[in-house]
Amino acid sequence: MARMYRDRDAKLNLLKGKTIGIIGYGSQGHAHASNLKDSGCSVMVAEAPGTEGWKNAQAAGFKVAMADKVAKAADIIVMLVPDNLHPAVYRGSIEKGLSAGKTLMFAHGFNIHYGQIMPPADVDVSMIAPKCPGHMLRRLYTEGKGPPALVAVYQDASGKAKDVALAYAKGIGCTRAGVIETTFAEETETDLFGEQTVLCGGVSALIKAAFETLIEAGYQPEIAYFEVLHELKLITDLIYQGGLSYMRYSVSDTAEYGDYTRGPRVIDEMVKDEMRVILEEIQDGSFAREWILENQAGRPCFNTIKRNETAHPIEIVGKELRSMMPWLKS
Fold first, then answer.
1. 30, 32, 108, 113: which one is catalytic?
2. Which residue numbers in the chain have pLDDT < 50?
């Protein structure tokens, strides 16, 4: 069983007298900074001058500076810029500001796990990864709640790395729900696997394949869109609320029978075999090397695939149909 930490296991006073530097005031950054501030912590924000992030952080009452100055002044430095920017920001602005006894924190383990950032041995390296988007992290905190999160320690120079990380988790509200202990490797590899095989890659490919099958069989694109994409939200909301059993309880018996008998024909052992290959590519670093090189080359494959995907018929018909749904704009 996973080890779980809650409010009683975290001591917020470990952050007392420390300055927390939030690197990046985006989706996660603004929520972390605001929650920590409301928890009584001393917070600085690093952003590029003149950006929306800089202006928004100033408007929210934070002391804002460039990343190198924040790294020098902060005791706990939290990397919340997009993952692909971490190595450049670290080497250009953070590395020189790290000194013995400081903490370098992350919300995702990619760059540590795959060696894109290699911190000095005399600093703590830890992770708190809330399991929700930034806007929800902030909203839940203001409601006196919080989302679950993951905690991991990569490097414990002080002997207190986990305690400080849990204090941070309490500061942003996650110990209200519970914080599960993991490792940088486990968090990174399972996160990438979930994105590629189910949450993004798997779902997108399944939707397109079903849409194309119906169109090729002569059905109207609009009807196909409703049946294989639009109604997906209903099903995922039910699963999110109560798991697979609750979804099956909520749909018709016909749908439930089709689930049991036809689902395994679509997602069969061949699919699982390919999932195992994808997992191996994540575990041995093949995917990470591919993605790092793609970014270094200016994203030629990524940009080409993105253009082609945007032109797929399901996107064209979907845009027209969504214009009929004014509630989506609210």
1. 108
2. none
